[in-house]
């Protein structure tokens, strides 16, 4: 087994380790070329502005994907504020720390074809508009939500915020079609604005909406997606207690949106039904 190419050494006083004071990106790299790189860099830059961490120089970042070489790999970037500062107050002289890792990757291609079973989660996401959309290092809510089930047949869990608005899955964004209109949750209070989501919204007419999970009972099709796995059509939805709530038959509607997503990532676009 090939060991991942990694550059990572974190002292115990690093603020990312101690407080989650930092950001991360996971980038799909194909034969040394990063996919959705402008979207990843735009989100990282926005996160830097929000947290007040200097953005690494472009020449420092742009050369990293080329180290991957041939094949499909994932480049994980971690940017922390660095070390220093007593308690929560950051030191104005802290030097940001950029860490990275490259590792081989194989997407779960069977889920493209067969679709996935998902469930609702009991956990509710807290609202913090200042941090909404960015990929900061404090992901404890996602960890706790993902711990709610161990059934390998359940691919993902859907999360609402404390007001009952549908937001995302534990590590994927959510899309559906209702009355012929493509929609995705509005992420102005919490959630991660994924780079595949951004890419799809540039290509397709997708409306951001604030709505509860009951919207999925009206949907003609539902998808989950991120920049590593591509787009999974949902074929079954369960309650948080594992009771069947809804099924979908996968049709060409599902595949048409999948094709748009997979063209962005270089994944297959020919699906059977």
Automatic annotation (TrEMBL):
Q: What cofactor is needed?
A: pyridoxal 5'-phosphate
- The enzyme class is lyase
Q: Which family does it belong to?
A: Belongs to the class-IV pyridoxal-phosphate-dependent aminotransferase family.
Q: Name one GO molecular function term.
A: 4-amino-4-deoxychorismate lyase activity
> Per UniProt, what is one Pfam family of this protein?
Aminotran_4
Identify the keywords attached in UniProt to this record, alphabetized. Folate biosynthesis, Lyase, Pyridoxal phosphate
Question: What Enzyme Commission number(s) does the record list for this chain?
Answer: 4.1.3.38
Reaction(s) catalysed by this chain's protein: 4-amino-4-deoxychorismate = 4-aminobenzoate + pyruvate + H(+)
Task: Report quaternary structure and partners.
Answer: Homodimer.
Which pathway, per its entry? Cofactor biosynthesis; tetrahydrofolate biosynthesis; 4-aminobenzoate from chorismate: step 2/2
Q: What is this protein called?
A: Aminodeoxychorismate lyase
- The record lists the organism as Billgrantia bachuensis
């Amino acid at each position: 087994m090939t060991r991942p190419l990694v550059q990572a050494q974190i002292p115990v006083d690093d603020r990312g380790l101690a407080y989650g004071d930092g950001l991360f990106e996971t980038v799909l790299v194909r034969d040394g070329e990063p996919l959705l790189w402008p979207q990843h860099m735009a989100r990282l830059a926005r996160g830097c502005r929000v947290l007040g961490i200097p953005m690494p120089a472009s020449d420092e970042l742009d050369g990293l994907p080329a180290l991957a070489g041939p094949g499909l790999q994932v480049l994980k970037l971690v940017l922390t504020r660095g070390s220093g500062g007593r308690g929560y107050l950051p030191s104005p002289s802290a030097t940001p720390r950029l860490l990275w890792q490259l590792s081989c990757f194989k997407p779960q291609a069977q889920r493209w074809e067969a679709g996935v079973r998902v469930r609702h989660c009991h956990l509710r996401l807290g609202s913090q508009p200042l941090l909404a959309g960015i990929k900061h290092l404090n992901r404890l809510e996602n960890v706790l939500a993902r711990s709610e089930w161990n059934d390998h047949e359940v691919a993902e869990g859907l999360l609402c915020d404390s007001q009952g608005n549908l937001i995302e899955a534990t590590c994927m964004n959510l899309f559906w079609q209702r009355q012929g209109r493509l929609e995705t949750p509005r992420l102005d209070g919490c959630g991660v604005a994924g780079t595949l989501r951004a890419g799809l919204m540039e290509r397709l007419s997708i409306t951001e909406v604030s709505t509860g999970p009951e919207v999925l009972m009206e949907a003609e099709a539902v998808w989950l997606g991120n920049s590593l796995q591509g787009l999974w059509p949902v074929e079954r939805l369960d309650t948080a207690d594992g009771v069947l709530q809804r099924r979908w038959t996968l049709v060409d509607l599902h595949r048409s949106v999948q094709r748009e997503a997979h063209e962005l990532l270089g994944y297959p676009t020919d699906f059977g039904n």
